[in-house]
Every structure is written in structure tokens, then in C-alpha cells.
Amino acid sequence: MRLASRAVVLLVGFLLAFSVLISAQTATTSLRGTVTDPKGAVLQGTSVTLTNPATGFSRTTKSANDGVYQFVEIPPATYVLTVTAAGFATMKQNNVSLLVNQPATLDVAMQVRGATEVVEVTGTAPLVNTQDASMGHAFNTEQVLSLPFEGRDPAGILSLQPGVAYTGNSQSLDSTVDSRSGSVAGGRSDQANITIDGVDDNDPISGNAFQGVFRATLDSLQEFRVTTAGGTADEGRASGAQVVLVTKSGSNKFHGSLFDYERPTSTTANDPLIKASQLASGQPNSPVRVLRHTFGASFGGPIIKDRFFFFASYEGERRREDTIVTRIVPSDDLRNGFVSYIADDGSVVRLSPTDLASMDLNCSTTPGFGGGGTCPLGPGANSAVMQIFQKYPHPNTDVVGDGFNFRGFQFTASAPAKLNTSKTIASLYVETCKAITLPG
Fold it and tell me: Residue 406 domain-assigned?
């Protein structure tokens, strides 16, 4: 008995502590509309109930004198809207999908009660945002899991928005120092504001546009939205994109997923410059090695039906890949003793080995210093250095070097570092408006 009471005290203390975390989560949405009769006149005092069958979440309000009802600060989910009024048939609208940070408007036209007692609409309700001028698109769970993108990284989908110039996958830009990666409506990437369940997730050091400090797993996301322009007063902190992510919280049914993805080298194509270099040196055309193994699972369900839920997600990744390395090597001209430079008039001057030898005035091969022995290996290019130049590979790119005497050479090199990323999310959702009865 004593042990049971102690367990109850610990559980109550845990719920009180966790309620502080829940109160900080402000990634919500809202719904409003007008209730009218068949002739279009507004109905006041009608009972409007919004219910989430998955979690038992329910809210009830009444329409005002102008027939307007509204629900504010409610969790994003798919709801059932039920409207009842004296003398009218009960209107039941299913599949009311409310997305995060996207206010919705749903007007209801009641019918006079007759042979029909309940009017039930099973189609998806067309919701329109008429409450603010914010621009952006929200993605629900089905879209998150159905859209193809590389690496199972949510940032790949977040960038698929009108008004977004995403360069995060460009090899010529370093996103850690170049804030043009992820420009939204002209703002730089470090001007974005990222939240997960209403909690600040911004990385002040890297300043990435669509990825914060905590990288949420794909299966743990319920939905997200990127506001590209016209953010409301409840958004802010930065002048760029407003990125809002909402994680799953479990429901009255047990749900889970198990996935395993393999990306072998056999499905990749070789880099054109690497291919040309390999063929020129007599090597086979072998693409850069890419071995990616991504695996994980998610599981969620009820602890106490309609009251207490849990959800957990894990994702691991193993990578064994080659990387493309670029080095500066002597050009073919320099290997043969030719030196080129740009003159003052902009023309290119190319000096042959004979021209270089003629520039060595008073050159002497006599051993010693001073007036003799200045060119122990003869005038012109140093033959010892020329022998070293012949050991360098032939250039195959001009991404580095001056393009005349020095050029670039790209090749593949094994990346010995093993990348092992694992993310675990555990969330508990409590329906605070209903009492929790503890046994005993």
C-alpha cells in the first residue's frame, strides 16, 4: 500500500512537471465560421462541437449573435464538426483537416428538421483561410511520407515552397558561411525562425533555413508549414521564413512503422570529370562509391484511452561513401616547360623553354658562386623540377588554378569516417480538460 501510494505521488509529480512542457507548445491552429438557416439568415446560440476521434479531444462552443463560432488554440488534426440547433437537423461534417498555423473558415448551412434528423457530410471539407494574409503551404502526414526526397530529410520538402530559392544541395556554396542557401522571399537563410511544437529550434551558429539544432525524424512529424510571407503577430523573431513543425503525439489506436532503405553504388552514375580522368589513365569507368543504409521504426498508442498517449521514433543511418577531392597540379604546358601569363594589355603571353633559357643572362654551369655556377643544370627550366612535374597526374578540370600554368585534378577518395546518426523522440500527450482517475 505504501509502495502504491508512492508510485501515485511520483506519477502525479511527473504529470505536473510535464504539463509545464506542454504549456510551452504553441504550434496550434484555429477554426471559425458562420451558421445560417436555409434562407441564409444567421443562427445564434447553436451548439458547435469539434471532436478528434483519434484522441478523444473535444471542444464545444455556441454561435454568437452574428452566427459566428470560433475555436482558437486547438491542436492540428482531422476533426469532426457537429452543429445542433432547435428545429434543425443535426449537421455533422467529417474530415475537417486543420493544419498548423493555418486558420480555417468553414461555414455551416443548417436544414429544417423533417424526415432527416442528421445530415452527415463524409467528404473533405473545403477550408479557406480568410482570417489573415499569410502565404505558405502546410504538409500533412500523407504528403510528408509520400513525397520522394533524398536522405529522408524534412528540409528537402520544406524547401519546396513558392518564393524559396534553396541552394543547400549545391557543392559550390558552403551553407555554413554563405547565408544565401535557403533564401525565402529575398531574406537570407539565417533570418528564418524554426520551431518544433512551439519550442525554439534555431541554430544561431549555422543559421540554416530549414534545419534547426534538433533534427526531427521524418516518421515523427505529423505536419509542418512554412510561412513565406505575411506572417501574423503570433509569429516573429526573424524577418525570413517561419518554419513550424508539429510532432506526432499518439492516438487511441496503436500504430507503428518499420522501414529499411538501401542505396547501393550500382544505382549511381559517375561524375563526368572523374570518368574522363579514369578513361584517360586506362582505368575502368567506376562511379563514386555510395553506400547508404537508413533504417528505423516508430510506434505510438494510448496509455489511458482519451487521456494519455505516447509516441516514439528512431532512425539510424550508416554511410560508406567516397568523396570527390580536388587538387592543384601543373598544367600540361608547365610540364613541358612553357609558362603563360596575362600581359598589361590583356593578351596572353606564352613563353617557350627557349624563351625562358634566353632570360638566364650570365648563366654559367661552372661550380661555385658569384660570377660562375649560377645555373648548374643549364639555362631555362630546372630539369630536376621538370622531372617532379612529370609525376603529377594530368589535369582534368579548371575549377581551381589559374587555367594556364596550374589547373585542377579531381579524383575519388575513400571517406574513412563512419557517419552514424540516430534520433529518438518520445512525446506524451495529456488531454488536460478531462480528469485522470488513478486506480486505488
Answer: no
